[in-house]
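On clarity, I found the account of how folds are encoded harder to follow than it need be. What matters is that the chain and its backbone geometry are given together, residue for residue. For the editor and my fellow referees, an illustration may be useful. For illustration, here is how one protein appears when written out as sequence plus structure tokens:

___
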Amino acid sequence: MSHYFILDPTLKHHERNIDFSIGNLNVHLVSDSGVFSNKSIDAGTYIFIKYLATLNISGKVLDLGCGYGPIGITLKLLFKDKIDIYFIDINPKCIELTSRNLKYYDLDGKCSTSDGYLNDEDKFDYILFNPPISVGKEKIYEIYRNTKDKLLINGHFYLVIRKDKGGLSHLKYLSSLFEASVIYKEKGYLIIECVNKE
């Protein structure tokens, strides 16, 4: 069985155009078979981007598990020179698509295939994450722990998760690592803000 977080070389290409708007910004991206939400932007990601667009984001930003890049690319379009954007995904196809989508807009961004982080020296002001719930809590909680080590002091980790997919238990665990709280709710999705205080 294929999963969007694992490269399946047997999948045939089926590229699609993904178009959505955030305020006055119209975003055009390309997706393909074998990546998360490849037919249209999923509700959680869209709600997440809408909320992030209201923040005053600056500095070094990581789109963790970037897929074809909707979160990080939209923020780069919105915040331009205020952010340096990095993208990581375990699936090489996602990194290929993100690179293409960055090139379409002539945007700078560093893309890396990894199931972890770039290197021991990298630390970020913001890390953004739409967790792949299907990999299980054990793996996701490991990612949360690793995220703490990759945030600067007072850095922010934002994630979106459905309440009925364990959102409150994730919040409880995150609260053991960060100063964590639900800062926005919409259509069953929770956006959690985590601040690295130590």
The longest strand covers residues 151-162. Residues 64 and 88 are 5 Å apart (CA to CA).
